[in-house]
Amino acid sequence: MLRAIEHKKGAVLILDQSRLPHSITDIKCTSWRQVSRCIKELKIRGAPAIGIAAAMGYALGAEEINAKDTGTLIEKLAPVFEGLFESRPTAVNLGWALQRMMEKARLLAGEGRTVRQIKDALWREAGLIHKEDIRINKAIGVWGSQFIKDGDVILTHCNAGALATGGYGTATAPIFLAHKQGKRIHVIVDETRPVLQGARLTALEMREAGIPMTLITDNSAGALLQQRRINLAIVGTDRTTRNGDVANKIGTYSVAVLCKENKVPFYVAAPLSSIDFSMRSGGLIPIEQRHENEVFFVRGRRIAPTGIRAANLAFDVTPARYVTAIITEVGAFRPNQLKKIASGKGAGLDAVRYVP
Ligand code: MRU
Questions:
Q1: Which of 85, 165, 200, 278 suits a disulfide with 48, CB 3.0-4.6 Å?
Q2: Of the residues 133, 163, 238, which should be mutated to test ligand 1's pocket, given the most ligand atoms within 8 Å of the CB?
C-alpha cells in the first residue's frame, strides 16, 4: 500500500501526490515551511494525512529552533504552530494534531525536561499520531464492513484512502476489509474535479488492492443511482460538526442528495479526530477556496477561454439529514447521536450505535 508520509533520519518524506499516478516521488522536507508548502499545494492531502504532516512539521520546526532553554523553545514554537495551522482551513485534523503537539511540548517543559528531550518527544508524539491513525482506520473498517454485503456496488467520492491518511484510509477501510473477507464488491469512483483525487488516487488504490472498480465522471453518479446500479455510498470527511453536518470534497453534497432521492444509504467514515465537537453546525466550517487555475487547467492544459472567472470551492457541507450514519473507530452512529460520543469512548455507546 502506498504511504503518504514518513519520518526518516530527521527529515519528513512526503509522497508527492500531485504527480500520481504517473510518478512515485518523495519530497524531502527539512523545514516546517516546506511541510506547510506541501500541504498548501496538495502534495499531501486528505484530512488525517495533513494532520500527521502538521505534527511532523511541528517536530521539524522544533528541531530548527536554536534554544538554550525550554521557555525560549516554547515561545519560538508559536509561529511554527500558526504557520502550519494556516496551511489549509477546512480539515479539523490539522488543528487537532497541532494542538496535541503543542500541549505535549508545554507539558514536558512544565515537568522540567531539557530542550533535547522535548524535541525527541515531539518526534515520538508525531509518530504516535501516525500509528494511531492506522489503528483507527482499521477499526473504522471493522464497523463499516458490516454495511457492505456480498455483491454490493459502492460509490465513493474523492480519495479517503491510504493516501489521505496514515495508511489504510477511512472510507476505503470498510471496502478493503469487505474485499479481504471475500465479499464480491465493485467500487464506483467519482473522478472528482478539479484535482481528480478519485481518478488519480482512489482508482490507483483500488487497482493496487485488486478491487474491481469503474471510474466515472462526477456528473454520472446521479444516473447510476437512478438506475439502481449503486447499493451504498461511503465518503470521508474533513470536518463533521456536533450536529452531524459533514464537510467533504466539493461534490459530496450532490452525491448525498442523490442518494437520499434514490433511497441509497450514504455513509461517512470519520475518525473522532475529524469530528469537531466544539462546532455546532456545518455553516460555521471554514471552506477553502482554491485558485481558479485548478478549474481552468486540466493537467497543465488550459480548457477554458481566457478573460473569464471560475469558482473553486474545495469543499461543501452535507446537512446531517442526508447522512445515514457516521462510521467512527468506536462504532457507527446516526448523525443526531454524535453528541453522545463527545467523550470519545466508554459506556453507553452500545445503546446509540447504528444498526441498519
Ligand atoms: O482537497 P483534499 O484532497 O485534501 O480533500 C480530501 C477529502 O475531501 C477527503 O475526502 C477527506 O479529507 C477525508 S480523507 C480520509
A1: 165
A2: 238
